[in-house]
Amino acid sequence: MKTETTIQGLSASLNPARAARKIIGFVPTMGNLHEGHLNLVREARKLCDVVVVSIFVNPIQFGPNEDFDSYPRTLEQDQHLLAEVGCDIVFAPTVEQMYGNKPRLTNIAVSDITNDLCGLQRPGHFDGVAVVVTKLFNIVQPNFAFFGQKDFQQLAVIRQFVRDLNIPLEVIGVPITRAEDGLALSSRNGYLSAENRAIAPTIYKTLQTAEAELLAGTALAEVLANMNTTLTAAGFVVDYIEARTPELQKIEQFDQDVVLFVAAKLGATRLIDNLQVKYPAA
Amino acid sequence: MKTETTIQGLSASLNPARAARKIIGFVPTMGNLHEGHLNLVREARKLCDVVVVSIFVNPIQFGPNEDFDSYPRTLEQDQHLLAEVGCDIVFAPTVEQMYGNKPRLTNIAVSDITNDLCGLQRPGHFDGVAVVVTKLFNIVQPNFAFFGQKDFQQLAVIRQFVRDLNIPLEVIGVPITRAEDGLALSSRNGYLSAENRAIAPTIYKTLQTAEAELLAGTALAEVLANMNTTLTAAGFVVDYIEARTPELQKIEQFDQDVVLFVAAKLGATRLIDNLQVKYPAA
């Protein structure tokens, strides 16, 4: 496994694969890898000849009061894990390599589906994601790109701009990887105190209960209210609980496939999770 | 020469060239081709193995009161001209082929350098250009893309977002093609009455006079004022006369290379032109 820190180095590493028309798979990450990321790499390994993983903590997707500076950077450990799951090339550029010295004037905005859910509390966040992912796509030029369904809104935003801009690759969404107790894996779980770590799986349990209620015929609004009650009682400060179509359109009743979204704070740590509930076939 | 009207058809036509690692040159146009466009194709022909020309009147770069509906569409004549100058593939998609049936949510904005000059009178115009050019780049995936220097601001905007987004191609700016009397060729020249067509070359003469004045030591502000006087006296309604660096930064004195920009209406027809004046080496 090679590690490249420059765009030029990465291109040189990938050129033989491109010339041989090999299938290139790409997994963009911010590092501090856990089993969720590794499952993305395993999925890429199945479908592709060459697997590239980027590790880049992207400054422009963090708000001024967010955790850019303190975001965990664990490159050596990440390299070790990636080598084990069959990554071919790690791309770990500096901020300067990605953004250069001249000011960036270009922004990519995906309207409507970035203004609510996680976008409401994080203005500009998804613009920053769209810009960096577009840059990485143009640098790596993969055939397939792999993203976790945990960041479901991010995945929907990426699918949208890939379609709108005709970016020549296929986006693959990979199901959420969970700890044994159900907590969706996240780099931010490491911020949780032991006590809060024990409470955190309540989010997934609440989503499972909601699914059962929906399938039993409880009205959607009541199900969402129950989720709020449960999470608040457990000590969460709920940021949002919402039901959307898989394309993130608002939905009033469980009359089609629905995705249930939760974002909630436990202490200072903001956790997100989601669960897709299939509408039962008639 | 082939004509493709679908993205799929174009990809099928280009795949053998891609597999053989041929150099692909791309000239995006809105059709109604004149010698200016044909010179872009000739330039592409020199540098590339395969030359693709797109003909697409892009609705999203026209304002509500602009000439989208009346913009001249002359595909057969264009095909004939392109075959003569060695174009390999014409890509002439429909609006539906380019934008599909689902709403486009993604926008690309290049700040600062799109808000003035032609952008001031045409809000959203350069966003529409950035989106369609990015889409075409992703569809054609050329090694080189050719644009005329007549639309100097457009060229600067394209260079900017190509750099900011790491789009993997080289942008080539091709000098303005002029009629014998100096008028910069433009599809919109066809809108001019015979009388106004005779007046139109005054723009270029004014630019040449300005260059001579600058090189003779006249202050930049005075030179710009003289241009305004001359054009107004000739019957133009001046939209703007400006001096900028080649990167479109404002400039107060002729102490470096400068580009002089003119946009002016003659009757109902808006004409633009520009001239780069090199700062004399010491």
From TrEMBL, chains A, B:
It is an enzyme of class 6 (ligase). Its EC number is 6.3.2.1. Keywords: ATP-binding, Cytoplasm, Ligase, Nucleotide-binding, Pantothenate biosynthesis. The lineage of its organism: Bacteria, Pseudomonadati, Pseudomonadota, Gammaproteobacteria, Moraxellales. The reaction proceeds by a bi uni uni bi ping pong mechanism. ATP binds at residues 30-37, 148-151, 185-188. Its main location: cytoplasm. The gene is panC. This is Pantothenate synthetase.
